[in-house]
Write a structure and sequence with these properties.
heterodimer; A: alpha+beta; three-stranded antiparallel β-sheet; 6 helices; globular; B: 725 residues; 18 helices; 28 strands
Chain lengths: 154, 725
């Protein structure tokens, strides 16, 4: 059994230590906002924050989580009011939406460390998140908009 | 189609029946077919409890909540929002009260006229086939609410108007929220021949972003949007399947001893497509599959690779094919032409590679079953499952979830992954609900690719540089063969749609086709045949323009007098892209125009080479899709289609080696990423023509627009895709 902290809540999890955090979240804890896309850290759909840093949960074994807090899309805000979430609605970013939890988690982490990212910063930070619907243009606009919102409320 | 409908689902309507039904729908009397559906669970009345439900598409409760039932799958293209926009406008609903749910399976209620009455989402038809039907559905509900208010206030209907969510009598300043009228309205007869709004009165249709935002935007930003992957039923087991490594191989034998020893694994069963490991959760099932030993019988397996397949196509391209079009005498004209141009274009297999790997949840009970799936062909899937279970189709409930992409893949004519899920549920005799989860590798190795194709072209120009002959031979697998859409004569228009019917004004045009036999399963992929025909035609037009020494835009304009809508989008895209002005240093522009699914799209790409690799900076898109329901959704679809088509043109290629697919994940099957996304500007042509679709038509022109830009930049035409290898 492992004890991990997910969205501020301590959880005792019984699973093989090799179990990727993704499947712990989805199948054992029951948080399905984090998505399975590729299983090899190539698409970013499973992105969560581990101690504030974006990681691919499909390739992060339970044994590697330790005491570091895990934040998932469900924990980003309780009411969809995180700046990135608001900007995503305003810019109408999502199409199928399957990748967007991961996109939003990557974008939120970018803005936590860079309050005013350039297009090049965005390209670098978001290069690991695939969107097959091709919402990249709106992702870029959404991140700029969220940065504005965060600065305005700071 | 008729043959298919009978074999797939005995409850399906014939095309003739559908015409009758749609006439009924057009008259606003949905209620007359309501309750006649195969499930028979709803009585033919307008009310259910405290709900006004005048037709199969909208219901309103006493709190004023409006629920729209979408007969089309929401896979990102905005169908839920678009269909709800049409109903909400005629209903004068308050947009904030509108939600949308996916329909179950019922061809009679939810058939798609553009698919011959089959319930299905494809061919960019959701808005096109629902436009009048959904306007009528909304207007009928509104008329009943107005009639209820008129009765309550003892006023003539003619004195009442509606504002979002309420009936209004302006003279006496009386207002009744819809919810308060629902009970009275539900007791009223469903009226026929309800007048529709004059388009000038539309409050939602055609309005800009912010008026009718996507109904699914918030849920897709907070993790609550539910996909098939997220369905969890009590006692459910997750199944992961060991699939054959080659198409056509079968299980010879297997040893499950080690798999069964994995904690959490509950069962291992052989099914027609492989060996399924069932476990308490995905990871245990996956570890169980890894621990299996399977011997495959490959005696009937397909053993060729993509190189051999393309060689087969090139050999076929030298021989005459099956005639499709023959205006004048293209061959003789080319022989005698002042200048001739020849080119052969090769197109690889492409995967849909939707973000949500394929999956399906099945619950089998003693005399019924239920499916949870992103149902793109719900009655087809239900018919296949019914046969597997030996149940009547009406005993199977189809729950439609949001789809994490699809691009055509979930409309599988053989219901491949749905059938696999059902065979697993049957193999364990329904002891537990089953969620079949394909890994990305399972998804990519299953095939059903956009077919590899070869186009051979020859053209002739006269001394003035005017095209006088066009000769084209198309080679590849037939997409429709063996499907419900197969033509009994063996002809397959999807192999050459967009090529045989190109409207460039050339007096001598010839086209023939070879349908090659290859053991790789193929399927429609966003824009179907247009994925390759647009490239072959539009690239060759530029090759001819260059041979004629003419500007590619002017060359096209001169040949499009008979197609004013195509010419108009071409001109609009060129103008907005600044075609006449020089591009920034180091860049060149390319243009392409194509019509697919009755929608016209022209795109101008501005491209440079960076370290020898194409870099697409800007794309200017002009689209004519008739009346626009949601302009921002149209823009989003064009932006997304550009990204989808650009990723394919730059990087897309499924490699098959000795019958094994080797492009199994995003590391080997490269797709477009953030850095490669150009700035896309979309210009929508104002129109009063009937609405057409936008899910697919933005895809075909981007590949040739980019290749034509590279041609302008380097002088070298693109003859083989993808561009980056």
């Amino acid at each position: 059994m492992a004890s991990i902290t997910i969205n501020g809540q301590p959880r005792d999890v019984t699973a093989d230590p090799s179990t990727p955090l993704l499947w712990v979240l989805r199948d054992i804890v029951g948080l399905t906002g984090t998505k399975f896309g590729c299983g090899i850290a190539q698409c970013g759909a499973c992105t969560v924050h581990l101690d504030g840093v974006p990681v691919r949960s499909c390739s992060t074994p339970l044994s590697a989580v330790g005491p570091r807090p895990v934040t998932t899309i469900e924990g980003l805000s309780t009411d969809s009011t995180h700046a990135v979430q608001r900007a995503w609605v305003e810019m109408q970013v999502a199409q199928c939406g399957y990748c967007q939890s991961g996109q939003i988690m990557s974008a939120a982490a970018l803005l936590d460390r860079n309050a005013a990212p350039t297009d090049a910063d965005i390209d670098t930070a978001m290069q690991g998140n695939v969107c097959r619907c091709g919402t990249y243009q709106r992702i870029r606009a959404g991140i700029h908009r969220a940065a504005e919102m965060k600065r305005a409320s700071a | 189609m008729r043959r298919f409908l009978m074999q797939a689902d005995t409850t399906a309507v014939s095309r003739r029946d559908f015409v009758r039904v749609s006439l009924v729908l057009g008259g606003g009397l949905m209620v007359s077919v309501y309750g006649c559906g195969p499930n028979g669970e709803e009585p033919p009345r307008a009310a259910t409890g405290g709900t006004l439900e005048p037709n199969a598409f909208v219901r309103i409760d006493t709190s004023g909540n409006v629920v729209v039932t979408s007969k089309h799958l929401e896979m990102g293209q905005g169908a839920y929002t678009g269909l709800a926009t049409i109903i909400a406008d005629e209903l004068d609903a308050d947009w904030s009260t509108v939600t949308v749910e996916g329909a179950g399976a019922d061809d009679k209620k939810y058939g798609n006229a553009t698919l011959g009455g089959l319930q299905g989402t494809g061919g960019s038809s959701a808005i096109a086939n629902s436009w009048m039907q959904h306007r009528q559905a909304g207007a009928t509900a509104r008329a009943m609410l107005v009639a209820a208010a008129a009765a309550q206030w003892k006023l003539p209907v003619s004195e009442l108007t509606t504002e979002p969510g309420m009936v209004v009598h302006a003279a006496t300043n009386r207002r009744a929220p819809y919810g308060t009228l629902v009970t009275a309205a539900a007791a009223m007869p469903v009226p026929a021949d309800v007048p529709l709004k004059d388009p000038s009165a539309f409050r939602y249709i055609g309005k800009e972003k912010g008026i009718t935002p996507r109904v699914d935007a918030k849920a897709k930003g907070n993790g609550t949007a539910t996909f098939t992957q997220d369905v969890k039923l009590p006692g459910m087991l997750t199944a992961v399947v060991a699939h054959a490594p080659r198409f056509g191989a079968t299980v010879r034998s297997f040893d499950a001893t080690k798999a069964k020893a994995v904690p959490g694994v509950r069962d291992v069963v052989q099914i027609p497509t492989g060996v399924a490991v069932l476990a308490e959760h995905f990871w245990a099932a996956k570890l169980g599959r890894d621990a299996l030993t399977v011997e495959w019988d490959e005696s009937a397996a397909y053993m060729k690779g993509t190189a051999e397949i393309m060689a087969q196509f090139r050999e076929a391209a030298a021989r005459p094919g099956r005639g499709v079009r023959n205006d004048g005498d293209a061959d003789a004209t080319i022989t005698n032409a002042s200048k001739t141009v020849e080119a052969t274009y090769a197109f690889p297999y492409l995967a849909h590679a939707s973000m949500e790997p394929l999956n399906c949840v099945v619950e089998l009970k003693s005399d019924s079953a239920a499916i949870w799936n992103a149902n793109q062909f719900p009655t087809v899937d239900r018919g296949v499952v019914a046969k597997i279970f030996g149940l009547a189709p009406e005993k199977i409930t189809m729950h439609t979830l949001l789809s994490g992409g699809s691009f055509g893949r979930r409309a599988n004519p053989k219901s491949d992954y749905v059938a696999e899920a059902a065979t697993i549920a049957k193999a364990i005799a329904g002891r537990a609900p089953v969620k079949l989860v394909w890994t990305r590798e399972d998804d990519m190795a299953a095939g059903y690719f956009r077919p590899a194709m070869l186009h051979r072209l020859r053209g002739g120009l006269d001394a003035a540089g005017t095209p006088v002959a066009w000769w084209q031979r198309v080679v590849g697998q037939s997409m429709m063969e063996g499907t419900m859409f197969a033509d009994p004569t063996g002809n397959d228009t999807s192999s050459y749609e967009g090529a045989s019917d190109h409207v460039y004004d050339i007096p001598n045009v010839f086209l023939d086709v070879h349908y090659e036999k290859v053991g790789v399963p193929i399927q429609w992929w966003r824009s179907v045949g247009h994925t390759h025909t647009a490239f072959a035609v539009e690239m060759f037009v530029d090759e001819m323009a260059k041979a004629a020494g003419r500007d590619p835009l002017e060359f096209r304009q001169a040949m499009l007098a008979k197609d004013p809508r195509r010419l108009a989008v071409l001109n609009l895209a060129a103008e907005k892209a600044g075609w006449g002005s020089p591009p920034p240093a180091g860049r060149a522009r390319g243009i392409a125009v194509h019509k697919s699914f009755d929608t016209y799209v022209a795109e101008v790409a501005e491209v440079s080479l960076q370290d020898g690799v194409p870099r697409v900076h800007r794309v200017t898109c002009a689209v004519d899709c008739g009346i626009v329901v949601n302009p921002d959704v149209v823009r989003a679809q064009m932006e997304g289609a550009v990204a989808f088509g650009l990723g394919a043109a730059l990087f897309g290629r499924i490699e098959i080696d000795g019958g094994r697919v080797t492009s199994l994940n995003f590391d080997r099957y490269r797709v477009l990423r953030q850095r490669e996304m150009p700035e896309v500007t979309v210009h929508i042509m104002p129109s009063t023509e009937k609405p057409t679709g936008v899910g697919e038509p933005g895809t075909p022109p981007i590949g040739p627009a980019v290749a034509n830009a590279l041609f302008a930049l380097t002088g070298t035409p693109t003859r083989t895709l993808p561009l980056v290898t």
